[in-house]
Amino acid sequence: MNSTNRTFAGIDIGGTNIKFGLFDQQGKVLHKEHRSTMAEKGPEALLHLVANIAERLLFFAADEELEVKSLGIGTPGAVDFRTGQVIGTCPNIKGWQGTQIGQALRERLNMPVFVDNDVNCMAVAESKFGAATGGGTTICLTLGTGVGGAILFDGKLYRGANYSAGELGHISIDHNGRLCNCGNKGCLEVYVSSKAIVANVKALLGDDMGSIFKRVLEGEIENLNIRKIFAAFRSGDEAATRVLGETASYVATALSGVVNLLNPNRVVIGGGVAEGDNGFVAMIEREIRERAFDSATDGMIVVRAALGNDAGFIGAGLLGEMTS
Ligand SMILES: [Zn+2]
Questions:
Q1: What domains lie within the chain, and their CATH numbers?
Q2: 156-157 and 147-153 beta bridge pairing
Q3: How far is the CA of 143 from the centre of ligand 1 (A)?
């Protein structure tokens, strides 16, 4: 088999689903699947499930005569990249902190296994095949159930002294603000997670939904979710526009500090919330430009992530490549 025909294998562990697949060196997805994470069954069951998925993926590749040299895994929480151990907390997967993913899978599969934080993986994928190609300094922010971040210098991940860099969701935007799960006050995540956005729209609507939301929700406010809020936003609903405007403003407040600190070439916004609308990303960009130094935003671009749900397993699959 020649070296121009390499295949990459990645697994992206999320709080709800595990996505996994194979892709070629042009980033073309050759195979992908997903499974429920079933985090409630505990860390040992999850590690077992991930190992089974890895074997399945590698058997499939072998069957198709695809050459896979290493396996990559993305997971929530900070990860010691040398060992593949989860060292950070993972609120969505109870008991996952401390899990030796890398060691367990290397022993079981007898091949190189690389493990990193899920947002770091997303950033790697975007830098290779998506919205962050071209090197330079990139800031990635993901907006979803949680708010994550990653930093790339010259196209390479900056992991920090103890693999904990890039936690953009835990930049405080209010020194005496609401208490965050991490123990700090006023963290960005508390104000802009999908849960916070839904709660803010509900609070604003109260008993009076207005005609657009009545139509979008078919009368049931319990059906409210991010997708429906963006649908109402695109139809010009006042409450949706106001809440998403405030959300963009919170995000821009945190990011303008990061932009002043690092003077990046680009900011990439991903995650379920950002997938909703280009207009939302444009609002964030506008306000970063208002708040940050002109010299720091001159030539900088703010873009939506390009690879969507596949970014996690693609970036994981590239981890081995990025280290060599
Ligand atoms: Zn926090």
A1: 3-127+310-323 (3.30.420.40), 134-193+239-305 (3.30.420.40)
A2: antiparallel
A3: 14
